[in-house]
Protein 1
Amino acid sequence: MALALLAVLFAAIYFEAARAEYGDVVINEFSDEAGMRPVVFPHWFHRVRFRCKVCHGDLGFKFEAGGNGINMLKIIDGEYCGACHDGDVAWSIENCDLCHSGIPNTPTQVHHSTVQKLVATPEPAAEAASEGEQ
Ligand code: HEC
Ligand code: HEC
Ligand code: HEC
């Protein structure tokens, strides 16, 4: 309880201090290894819809990119992204590519670009292959 309160307080302070910077978070602790594209989480897009507390308090997301050990089992169980991406609050997890949209091999990070710079162009594999040939 006290911890949750602290998290909310921290969030309030952080928001004051760094209002302008809400980078997209690339989460790639397991995706590449599993043959999926890295996940791009558009932080600002979500932030304008929900208070910090919803995710960093109630849903238990720690303030650390890649620091939550999120995997699909937990998501399907309704934890983390799965708390909302259930076809009710937001579109459901069948839409693999909407989350797994990153450029392959992008490491876990907070990126201060717009999401577009991180999202793979169609056919990244073909592009990589032709680059290799030149
Ligand atoms: C709402 C967002 C979201 C959707 C939709 C989604 N995923 Fe994921 N997935 C994640 C996140 C977040 C992780 C953790 C990423 C990491 O650390 O690499 C993950 C991890 C994975 C992993 C690696 C770890 C594990 O659990 O095995 C696989 C494989 C995976 N997803 C497959 C899928 C498939 C297949 C679909 C569609 C049926 C899907 N995902 C849809 C968010 C999503
Ligand atoms: C819809 C859910 C959601 C909301 C709302 C949200 N966040 Fe996040 N936040 C996340 C996720 C997901 C991550 C990445 C966690 C991971 O990779 O496991 C994250 C990561 C962070 C990080 C860590 C970035 C780093 O450097 O590693 C900070 C700081 C943060 N959020 C602050 C905030 C603040 C402040 C607010 C409110 C203004 C907020 N978040 C609102 C989901 C959310
Ligand atoms: C608190 C609820 C909530 C949580 C938690 C949440 N999302 Fe979302 N997300 C939403 C809503 C609502 C939308 C908008 C859905 C719509 O437009 O139909 C959305 C949209 C998105 C989009 C599309 C953004 C765009 O530009 O259209 C992506 C990608 C996404 N979420 C990824 C994730 C990932 C990855 C996680 C977990 C790390 C996550 N979300 C966790 C509520 C949430």
Protein 2
Amino acid sequence: MILLCERCYAPVDPAADRFYRLAHIDHSDADGNVFWRHTVVHVEACPAAGTVDPVEQHGWAA
Ligand SMILES: [Zn+2]
């Protein structure tokens, strides 16, 4: 699964990037069960959205 930073939308590499995992409440059902939506966000300040080319950042092949 590809992780995308919730703040800058750049890919997060679990092996190389420092990131926090966040849990947001998605919804609950009639029985009171809560469904969670898990996201990640970079620990360091993010670059402005759209300024990072994932291929340049990580050397990934297209
Ligand atoms: Zn980010």
Protein 3
Amino acid sequence: MHDESGRGVAMTKHAVVIAGGGPTGLMLAGELALARVDVAIVERRESQDLEGLRAGGLYIRTIEVLDQRGIADRFISQGQVFRSAPFARGTLDISDIPARHNYYLGLWQHRTERILADWVSELGVPIYRRSEVTGFAQDDTGVDVELSGGRSFMARQAASYRNNRVLLAGDAAHVHSPMGGQGLNIGVQDAVNLGWKLAQVVHGTSPESLLDTYHAERHPVGARVLRNTMALTALDRSDDRIEALRGMMSELMQRDAPRQQYVAMMSGVDINYDLGEGHPLLGRRMPDLDVVTTDSPQRVFALLHDARPVFLNLGEPGAFDITPWADRVRRVDARYAGAWELPVLGAVAAPTAVLIRPDGYVAWVGEGTDQGLGDALTTWFGPPTAPTGS
Ligand SMILES: Cc1cc2nc3c(=O)[nH]c(=O)nc-3n(C[C@H](O)[C@H](O)[C@H](O)COP(=O)(O)OP(=O)(O)OC[C@H]3O[C@@H](n4cnc5c(N)ncnc54)[C@H](O)[C@@H]3O)c2cc1C
């Protein structure tokens, strides 16, 4: 790594360098550190202090991804719970979304960042402050990062979230109006989608092509937020026609179905990554069920604290053999007798097993057989390990 005069600086080599320790960069650093990747943040700000208030809080899915890492309570204890979300100068009830954290957590961005920075520092990630990335050059072996002053800002969505070894996330990938309050939220979720994939590629357990799924999954989410913010900005205008439209939309939102669809979308709990045809859970977030494992009652999100994939067997104990992936995928036998209820979709059939990615999305659903399980394990977590002695 070089500063603007071409001098090498102290942080010469890291497996991953994150330009910017805002909410997205901090979350990504935490994810990579949990996966034991040597990661550093380069941040031009002197401290975590922020000018202005910026993001006002966290939507459901963001609280959930923090809960998946065991740190949601740090945010909840400093925030304020609202059972409704803003819409067209009014609010919409959010409390009937089937999720443990079915509320909007009011928490100013400087607090969110400080909590994330503390977490990242506990995980031992170095943050090089007062350093600005001004350019980079990459080749097949790595990326040379240049540092100095300078600044640029644009409103846009990047065409591609990946340029070989350089990946974009958060506001670097999509910048839009703050209307609807989603920028920080989707930035943190970008980081959680990217972190485990990048870690596996760095460790050599997965091919680089796994990184393309980051763009494929998160670009449509960013595009949808851009569309929402444009629509909400238009709805906020003050003229007679827009006022009429606002009235019509608000009336429509009095009905449960459109309201639930809208708040689930704003909360990020309706995200459905395209992982092919199959059970409705496939590609959707795993609900935070209260299961009973062979040891004790357990929340599913607690199984994800170390950011490793989980194979949750809810059928016969010992059913399904995932031994060739046992070094990467944690296997848990558990029982669950309750309902499976997904936001917007409602009740879905109970699966016999689920393969959960570290970001909490379901990569495979068992409906009585192990059909497709080996392929899903290989696609997401790398090829099987050959048995020892073979
Ligand atoms: C007025 C306002 C209100 C908002 N309200 C909401 C809201 O209610 N809800 C919501 O979710 N979002 C909201 N947002 C958006 C939210 O603030 C951003 O989406 C969020 O900060 C994005 O996080 P990030 O980490 O991707 O980027 P940033 O927060 O911009 O962090 C990037 C970091 O990188 C550093 N940096 C930048 N360039 C370099 C470089 N070249 N070298 C080194 N360091 C660099 C910066 O100093 C910064 O610390 C609002 C934004 C504004 C402006």
Protein 4
Amino acid sequence: MKRLLILMVVSILLAGIIFPSAVCATEDSLTEIDYDPNAITMYTYEESGVQPLWTPVPEGVTDGSYLLDCLNDGVYTRPSFAQIEFLGVHYLETGYLNKAFYIRIDLGKVYDLDKLSITWFTNRGVNYCVYGSEDGSDYNFFDDQSETEDGTMYTESVFDEDARARYIEIEILGLTRHDDGLGGEKNFFAMYEIDVYGTEAGKNQQQLLRKRLLLHPRKLLRLK
Ligand SMILES: [Ca+2]
């Protein structure tokens, strides 16, 4: 029985070496989470002095833009975007806000997360960090995108294997382009899409095992 097991393990490992494309297939097969974009909320701390809001649909605009639905509809072009505008003290040299504000996404269930990506509407970069929480009160740090450069159209956070959350918070630290002629303090940015990838917690054990087999074959050899 033990020999059979070893033979199976060796066969799997050899398959990984002979057909390395299998590793790529794992990357490509990420599952997108179909969360409700209308469950996205935004908040800041009262004492921060930052006033963020979702830009309301401008008068006369009837093409469906500026709605939260746009953030998870799989459309990465006009008019499918939503915009945030904010007023707050920021450092002129860096564009960083004195105090951050937060976008919170409720995925509806707890997920083992693989990746979060944002497709930006304009060519102004947004500096942010990503946190995750299973219960909505205790958050873990997931990723740092605070070095985003001006002109960035797409950012991506690939999470560690143990990243598990129902709630994701995107901490908006500021914009890379601070001077847009709007008076120094007022600013805005827009997003076409916020994509989150992962699988429902506890339902992906086989997938995780396969991932570990491919990524950490030596660990498997130590198993009895
Ligand atoms: Ca969209």
